[in-house]
Amino acid sequence: MTSHPRCCAAGDSVEAVAALMREADVGEIPVVDAQRKLLGVITDRDIIVRCVAAGDAPGSSRVQDYMTAPAQQLGEDASLEQLANLMVHEAIRRVPITDGEGRLSGMVALADLERTKARSLKSRIARGVSRPP
């Protein structure tokens, strides 16, 4: 898990979030409120498909209009099996992790599983999230 991931506010510009993604080399940014409670997520795909391809200007567009909310998430006490099941069932590659108060505490990406002993789970998830709808 990546602890204390970069995040943004719902009122931030899409352009600023895209720059944050480039700087952090990530494809998803959690959207949080002032107390770091998870409101949703915005992905590079959200920006391209929902904003740019629709002809909207990223500099004047706000994250709240393009983010995915509510976001799929798991608590800090979730097992790797629960993580794998969520990723496969929802066909997602990244999952925000929240504490008991709903505040963002980390992100788990498919790539994070490669660095663990759970490589077989990574393979199962990769097949599940890559399957055609």
Automatic annotation (TrEMBL):
Signal peptide: none annotated. SMART domains: CBS (SM00116). It comes from the Bacteria. Residues 1-57, 67-123 form the CBS domain. Pfam families: CBS. The keyword Secreted does not apply. Keywords: CBS domain. PANTHER family: CBS DOMAIN-CONTAINING PROTEIN, CBS DOMAIN-CONTAINING PROTEIN CBSX3, MITOCHONDRIAL. This is CBS domain-containing protein.
